[in-house]
Description:
The longest helix has 14 residues, at 206-219. The strands form two sheets. A five-stranded mixed beta sheet has the order 6-5-4-7-8. It has a three-stranded antiparallel beta sheet with strand order 2-1-3. The chain has helices at 28-32, 46-54, 121-133, 149-156, 159-165, 179-191, 206-219, 228-231; strands at 7-12, 17-19, 39-43, 82-90, 95-105, 108-119, 141-146, 193-198. α3 (121-133) runs parallel beside α6 (179-191). By secondary structure, it is α/β, with parallel strands linked by helices.
Amino acid sequence: MGKPKKYYAVLNGRTPGIYINWFGPGGAEEQIRGYAGSRYKGFSTLTEAKQWLENPVSLKNTFRSNRTDTAHGADMATPGAVIIYTDGGCRGNPGPGGYGAVIIDGKKRIELSRGFRLSTNNRMELMACIAALETLKKPADVVLYSDSRYVVNGIDKGWAQKWRDNNWMRTKKDHAENVDLWAQLLELCDLHRVRFVWVRGHAGNRENERCDELATTAADGVNLREDVAYVKGRTQNPSS
């Protein structure tokens, strides 16, 4: 697993200075997110961070918030983070389904896929995220790219958290769906610091396209697994 930097020096941002955390309240990421022309860099020691702030001889190696790493599309605004791409879908919705995921952890790359006899698009998208995050052996900073607005908005807009807080009710009368999977995903997000990023599907993003290939191949495979909670109508039960 890539080792995160211990100190983050923000040269150009909302509040320039040195930060010991990247994510969370008061972290460096808050200072540069959406800030035009932001400049920052991670260091292993406080002394190095101070020296760079006092004398940034060259900005050549600083991170830029609007750049992506051309090797795999990793968001350079999150130094040391594990990069995950996911995709999922079904033939017919509901129908035979599959998911695919790519996990990039420094120089280590893992690909995952699995097929199911009968499921839905949304369930495959959720399962892809869960399977990918479950490969991480200890808490990590993660940037997870998905082309599912259902997944990304469910986390970013706080919908899933609200459902969990309300005993998995979407409204006073209506149960939320796929709570068996949302419950697992939220537990993983509690363990890791995960930033979900929406990407447009079928738009030429190499890793997203690879996930689509993995998911499609899995859905078209033989000896498909059973999505037990879906088949038995237990998708509104968080303990399924």
